């Protein structure tokens, strides 16, 4: 069982996927092979992760038709700018060695280059070279600035998001604008798995703390890309489609917010 969302391009994207940050060589390839076998259909990588070759190998080695998989990659900060972004896209396509990329993102909103980078993504989309384009780490001020020069609305905004960093206003803003919000590090790199409130909810629903967090995001309409190269965890993370969290408990989890970041604050790039 896998739930999908329809992007503003008309493309369908799984709500749950695999993030492959900080995975290299055989570990990355094996993780993606296991994930696809387990039922994952969304794989999220980036030029910055230096594992596009391995991800492409795993995709081609799978017995799943390319059209059933959704592949995301991102332009590296050092490759931003109009012409360099176009070159970077070609390099990613070559490394992945697949016919097309489903979603291409601006990885971080680098001040000096983010406008030209976005316009390059629009060109790639308009030329049919990528199915959808979007942004990552774009908090509200970045989206506001983007709207001043963008000709198309991003399909996806991928940000750090969890019950402990509940960006409710950003979620609402993206929903109003027709942008799909996607959460990376939704499991807070394991830092909150012993939170007694979370553990109590896990026991109540007969699920793990990680499954509670992922289900919470799903019920908010947020796509999530938890990272794991462990087969047991991969199976656990995708096993969230057979239960629902009550509205009362959803509000309870919303209240876990403490604006906890485990990754850099994008606003440091704004000024």
UniProtKB/TrEMBL annotation:
- What sections of the sequence does the record tag as coiled-coil? none
InterPro entries per UniProt: AKR, Aldo/ket_reductase_CS, NAD(P)_OxRdtase_dom_sf, NADP_OxRdtase_dom
Gene3D superfamilies in the cross-refs: NADP-dependent oxidoreductase domain
Keyword annotations: NADP, Oxidoreductase
NADP-dependent oxidoreductase domain ranges (all copies): 23-257
Superkingdom in the source lineage: Bacteria
The leader peptide range reads none
Q: Name one Pfam family in it.
A: Aldo_ket_red
| SUPFAM superfamilies associated with the record | NAD(P)-linked oxidoreductase
Family the UniProt entry places it in: Belongs to the aldo/keto reductase family.
Q: What is this protein called?
A: Aldo/keto reductase
């Amino acid at each position: 069982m896998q739930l999908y969302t329809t992007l503003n391009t008309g493309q369908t994207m799984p709500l749950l996927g695999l993030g492959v940050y900080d995975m290299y060589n055989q570990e990355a390839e094996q993780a993606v092979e296991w994930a696809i076998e387990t039922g994952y259909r969304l794989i999220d990588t980036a030029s910055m992760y230096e594992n596009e070759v391995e991800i492409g190998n795993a995709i081609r080695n799978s017995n799943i038709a390319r059209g059933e998989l959704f592949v995301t990659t991102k332009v590296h900060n050092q490759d931003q700018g109009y012409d360099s972004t176009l070159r970077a896209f070609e390099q990613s396509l070559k490394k992945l060695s697949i016919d097309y990329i489903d979603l291409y993102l601006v990885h971080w909103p680098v001040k000096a280059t983010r406008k030209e980078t976005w316009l390059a993504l629009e060109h790639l989309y308009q030329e049919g070279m990528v199915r959808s384009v979007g942004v990552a780490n774009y908090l509200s001020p970045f989206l506001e600035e983007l709207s001043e020069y963008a000709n198309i609305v991003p399909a996806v905004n991928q940000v750090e998001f969890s019950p402990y960093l509940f960006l409710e206003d950003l979620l609402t803003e993206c929903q109003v604008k027709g942008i799909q919000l996607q959460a990376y590090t939704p499991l807070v790199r394991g830092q909150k798995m012993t939170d007694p409130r979370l553990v109590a909810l896990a026991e109540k629903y007969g699920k793990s703390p990680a499954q509670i967090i992922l289900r919470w995001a799903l019920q908010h309409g947020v796509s999530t890309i938890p990272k794991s190269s462990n087969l047991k965890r991969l199976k656990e993370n995708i096993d969230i489609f057979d239960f629902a969290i009550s509205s009362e408990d959803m509000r309870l989890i919303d209240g876990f917010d403490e604006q906890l970041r485990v990754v850099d604050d994008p606003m440091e790039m704004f000024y």
